[in-house]
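INFO worker-7 received task bundle
INFO bundle size: 2
INFO processing item 0
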Amino acid sequence: MTVQVLFLALGASRTRTAAEESAQVVADGGQAVVLIDQRKPWQRVTFDPAVRVVELSRLESGRLPVRIEQLLLYRAPRRLFRVVGRGGLRDRMGRLSGAYEARFADRVHRRLAVPLYRSGWGEGSHPVIRQGLPGTFDLIVVLDPISMPYAAGLLADYEARGIALPRVAFGLDYAGTAAPGDAQGALGVGT
């Protein structure tokens, strides 16, 4: 039986731990999925090729509030800058568009929109995560405080669907102990 482990690393505060522990799961014969918020803070992190890295922001991009926010903050202004920036104004409007996105749109997205529409999604995000990560997990490793509501939501979803609850830990070291090389025991699954 292959052990499936989900690492929740939405805060990107323990990047090295996520990479090392997910590689350990793969080395022990299991399957590892790392759920991150966005790829940007993880650019310098190299994961084992067998580790599946999934961005929550991409999973959420289909939700109506996110689509509306993207339309209002990014797509409509880009179109406006493109229409106004024809001919000799093209370069100037291109620079202005980039400045608008960097100084205004990105800040509004990060500081206002994301906290606003995610405030109730922690426990309510399980359908989005379930669709993006099919299957069940034997262990959920919560790597930062931001990921805790998502772990709670996933556990509530497992319970509501009548599926055996996975173990939850804050690292592989806390998941359980077993003989070296015993993937299931080392991950605290099936013991």
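INFO item 0 finished
INFO processing item 1
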Amino acid sequence: MLFHPMDILVFIAFGISIWAQFRVKGNFAKYSDVIASSHLTGAEVARRILDQNGLYDVPVEPVHGQLTDHYDPIHRVVRLSEPVYYGNSIAAVSVAAHECGHAIQHKERYGALVLRHKMFPVVNLTSGIAPILLIAGFLLQSLNLLGLGIIFFSAAVAFQLITLPVEFNASSRAKAILVSDGFIRNEEEHGVNKVLNAAALTYVAAALISLFELLKFVMIFFQSQEE
């Protein structure tokens, strides 16, 4: 079947993903021009947040690119893109605080993050094999291969769904810390929300795309059994 009704939902989710990417870049660019009242750089904010939470041994490092910010749980390093590391804008401090939120989650063994870390090796394997099994299942008209592909793909979808609370929680922590510790003023919260909420939307869109794809494969599988 070349077209399936679920494809409509996949296309909608894909459209949301594209829109979310534009929002992330647009909001980041907009609030990169708005200097935070504290005048601290992203690196300085990150260092202070980590130290205040007892994470003195977690370094903050600059990394090339834009929106390449991340927390490395294996090496326990907060890596900030150069515009965030050196910038003192609302966008810079927002992203820096968000990545520190992940470091704090790691320290506190936040449930969803722990589960995500445990799933990663399995998902890293199954996400590469799943497409091969699904394609082989369709080409060979093998329900066994298709079913196995669906199981493997399910692991990748579960991983993306578990990522959502991890990201939302990190953003929630970031917003609270930025205000309570005086890195921003109350009137600057709007900008922080715009930057972090747009970023969170990209994860939601990616999860929706994968979920709808999975539902499509499941429906095809059961329809094929009836034929």
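INFO item 1 finished
INFO post-check item 1: Residues 6-221 form one domain.
INFO post-check item 1: The chain has a mean pLDDT of 93.
INFO worker-7 idle
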